[in-house]
Write a structure and sequence with these properties.
mainly beta; OB fold (Dihydrolipoamide Acetyltransferase, E2P)
Length: about 150
């Protein structure tokens, strides 16, 4: 009997420099970036809140969370709405610099990357796949960082 290959449908999310890769099941929607409401006292990576399904949700810059500059908005920018993993946030959005690409991942096409990241960065690791080296975000850490800032800014 042939061995069954395990695949995970994932999204490659374009950033200003590089890409994120996340399981498709973590993403609720990809949409245009609506007008956002800024939060006074929030760090630069916390862009503000945006309306989504009748409720305001946080919109953040992943680059900013990693200590880099927040990229300027562009006509291709999108928000990727994530399903919250914990009880503190039901949903949050990350600013993308274009449309995410659907890919199927299996152990045949990915290898661990060699990049190191600061301890507080919301990154689990980097992968090597074909000509890409996407980052795997630590969604729990990311959600915690957003929730902490949301409480401080309110």
């Amino acid at each position: 009997m042939a061995e069954r290959v395990q695949e995970i449908y994932s999204l490659l999310i374009p950033l200003a420099e590089g890409r994120l890769i996340v399981p498709r099941a973590c993403v609720a929607e990809v949409a245009g970036v609506p007008v956002h409401s800024e939060m006074t006292g929030a760090p630069p990576w916390y862009i503000g809140t945006v309306p989504w399904n009748g409720k305001p949700i946080p919109l953040v810059s992943f680059e900013g969370l990693c200590g880099k500059s927040v990229p300027p908005g562009s006509g291709r920018a999108r928000m990727v709405v994530f399903v919250g993993l914990g009880a503190r946030l039901a949903h949050f959005a990350v600013l993308a610099q274009g449309f995410p690409q659907l890919v199927r991942l299996s152990s045949d096409v990915i290898r661990p990357g060699t990049a190191a990241f600061p301890e507080r960065a919301p990154v689990l690791c980097q992968l090597r796949m074909a000509n890409e080296t996407p980052l795997v975000p630590d969604l729990e850490r990311l959600e915690q960082m957003i929730a902490d800032e949301t409480q401080v800014a309110v």
